[in-house]
């Protein structure tokens, strides 16, 4: 009986903190624009991991074929006919220690995938660092949150 | 408190986190499906009203930026002729002190360029470079009895340059930017066991204002203090990076330092053709009496073709071959090591007027490239 009460109190005590951490994690959800303004990415949560897919391109059509852009630079030839709109360029991020980590970012312009860590500078600003092996060898892009124009 | 209430407490505490977990923020935009209407993302604005867009330092199709480079550079056989040390105007025909056959000249080149601050609103990189030129000069013919032998000094000690550099890219909005580059280089016949004083550091810098009208073009104009042709000079510079609509062709130009046309075989293979000016002022310690610094104003133009290809992960290979044209191998005496400005019109005399014939050269490098 005493153990049950103690366990209940303990769980009741930690519950708000767990919920708070989860709320913070979900702040990543939404629509974001990359630093160069070329793409908008929608971040979603699937099975406790975060994914971001391209939902808008400043240049949606291939300037040569005039058709919607495909992932033509993908090293995997079987994926080169995949439309860029809808492509998940952020994959497998988990929230740890106030950042989203363990994920990758894909650059459709080069067909390269990089390790990536995401930090939230403020609720409308992300710092997305793609890196090669170690974080020092990387580049940070600042993404801005978008919302429907009022 | 009865058993029932304890049980309820436990149930509440156990499930409370999961209840809260399930309360993800409401997304006003429909979940992604294959038939998702992407037009709903057209009419969006920044949530932060003060947010600004900035132009990127890159355009489509540029050859990859290098974080770390290891390369081997080699000039093939050519002839060298060194004058006696004196005071000569350019165009004079000074007495020849020695001649020789340079069997090879070259060596290891290292480079690193690491971002210190990398934000949309500013990019700041720091870099370091090292280049060694080992000479193998044979058949040295002494024409005068003078004891100064540049050929012997080059053979025994070679030339090397090591330096630090920095680059700052500051976008002024979506279509304009400023670019600053600066470097400090120590060049001479020093070795790590017989280091050259830092008072002989030579400084270069460039400042460019530019425009980036779209994702396939950026251009700029500016001014540079440069040692690209051996002597310090102040020159105007023009930046012009461009990529064709089909992304196959392009240019990478920082005139007059370098200019290349680019052909993209595919995103993992590039061909470049053009030229680069290379140069530094190399102090010959062994021939610098007292406080006078004898410095070889080594400047060369390299007309070349370069093939770059992705090897694995973020590692690229470059193979470069071409013709090395000797722009200058003359020498100056610098009193107390103090640099002076001759420019295009100065009439200061040279301490030596030397000549090198123009050989083929090649350069092979491995590079860790930037995201």
CATH class of chain A: Mainly Beta
Oligomer: heterodimer
User: What is the terminal-to-terminal distance of chain B?
Assistant: 62 Å
Helical/strand content category of chain B: mainly beta
Number of domains of chain A: 1
Distance between the termini of chain A: 56 Å
Uncertain ranges of chain A: none
Q: Which descriptor suits the 3D outline of chain A?
A: elongated
Structural class of chain A: alpha+beta
SSE succession of chain A: HEEEEEEEE
What pair of chains forms the biggest interface? A-B, 70 and 59 residues
Q: How many beta strands in the DSSP annotation of chain A?
A: 8
Would you kindly provide a written description of the structure presented here, covering whatever features stand out?
The complex is a heterodimer of chains A (150) and B (371). Chain A has one domain (2-146): Lipocalin, CATH 2.40.128. Chain A has 1 helix and 8 strands; from the N terminus they run αββββββββ. Chain A has one helix at 2-25, and strands at 30-33, 39-46, 49-57, 88-96, 99-107, 112-122, 125-132, 134-148. In chain A, strands 1-2-3-4-5-6-7-8 form an 8-stranded antiparallel beta barrel. The longest helix of chain A is centred in the first third of the chain and has 24 residues, at 2-25. The termini of chain A are far apart. Mean pLDDT of chain B is 88; it is low at 1-33. Chain B is built from 2 helices and 17 strands. Chain B has one domain (66-369). Chain B has 371 residues and is mainly beta. The radius of gyration of chain B is 29 Å and the shape is elongated. Chain B starts with a helix and ends with a strand. The relative contact order of chain B is 0.16. At the A-B interface, helix 1, strand 1, strand 2, strand 3 and strand 6 of A face helix 1, strand 1 and strand 4 of B.
Short description:
The complex is a heterodimer of chains A (150) and B (371). Chain A is α+β, with helices and mostly antiparallel strands and 150 residues long. In chain A, 16% of the residues lie in helices and 49% in strands.
């Amino acid at each position: 009986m005493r153990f049950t009460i103690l366990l209940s109190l303990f769980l009741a005590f930690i519950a708000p903190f767990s919920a708070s951490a989860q709320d913070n994690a979900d702040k990543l959800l939404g629509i974001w624009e990359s630093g160069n303004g070329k793409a908008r990415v929608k971040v979603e949560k699937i099975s406790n991991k975060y994914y971001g897919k391209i939902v808008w391109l400043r240049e949606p059509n291939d300037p040569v074929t005039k058709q919607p852009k495909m992932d033509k630079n993908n090293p995997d030839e079987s994926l080169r006919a995949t439309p860029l709109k809808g492509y998940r360029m952020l994959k497998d991020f988990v929230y740890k220690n106030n950042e989203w980590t363990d994920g990758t970012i894909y650059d459709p312009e080069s067909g390269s995938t990089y390790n990536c860590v995401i930090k939230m500078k403020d609720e409308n600003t992300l710092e997305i660092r793609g890196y090669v092996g170690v974080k020092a060898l990387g580049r940070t892009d600042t993404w801005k949150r978008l919302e429907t124009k009022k | 408190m009865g058993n029932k209430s304890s049980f309820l407490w436990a149930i509440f505490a156990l499930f409370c986190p999961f209840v809260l977990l399930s309360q993800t923020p409401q997304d006003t935009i429909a979940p992604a499906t294959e038939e998702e209407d992407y037009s709903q993302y057209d009419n969006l604005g920044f949530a932060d009203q003060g947010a600004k867009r900035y132009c990127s330092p890159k355009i489509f199709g540029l050859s990859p930026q290098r974080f770390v480079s290891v390369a081997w550079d080699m000039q093939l056989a050519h002839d060298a002729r060194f004058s006696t040390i004196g005071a000569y105007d350019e165009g004079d025909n000074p007495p020849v002190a020695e001649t020789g056959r340079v069997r090879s000249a070259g060596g290891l080149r290292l480079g690193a360029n690491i971002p210190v601050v990398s934000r949309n609103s500013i990019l700041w990189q720091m870099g370091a470079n090292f280049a060694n030129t080992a000479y193998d000069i044979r058949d040295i013919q002494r024409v005068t009895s003078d004891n100064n032998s540049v050929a012997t000094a080059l053979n025994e000690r070679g030339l090397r340059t090591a330096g630090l550099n920095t680059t700052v890219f500051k976008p002024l909005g979506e279509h304009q930017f400023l670019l600053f580059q600066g470097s400090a280089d120590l060049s001479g016949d020093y070795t790590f066991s017989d280091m050259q004083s830092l008072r002989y550091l030579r400084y270069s810098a460039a400042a460019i204002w530019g425009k980036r009208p779209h994702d396939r073009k950026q251009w700029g104009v500016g001014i540079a203090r440069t040692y690209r042709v051996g002597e310090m000079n102040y020159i105007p510079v023009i930046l012009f990076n461009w990529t064709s609509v089909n992304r196959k062709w392009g240019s990478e130009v920082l005139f007059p330092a370098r200019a290349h046309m680019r052909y993209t075989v595919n995103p993992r293979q590039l061909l470049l053709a053009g030229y680069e000016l290379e140069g530094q002022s190399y102090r010959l310690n062994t021939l610098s009496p007292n406080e006078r610094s004898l410095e070889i104003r080594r400047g060369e133009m390299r007309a070349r073709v370069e093939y770059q290809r992705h090897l694995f992960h973020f590692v690229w290979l470059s193979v470069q071959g071409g013709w090395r044209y000797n722009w200058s191998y003359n020498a100056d005496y610098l009193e107390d090591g103090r640099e002076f400005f001759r420019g295009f019109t100065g009439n200061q005399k040279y301490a030596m007027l030397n000549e090198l014939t123009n050989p083929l050269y090649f350069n092979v490098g491995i590079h860790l490239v930037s995201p």
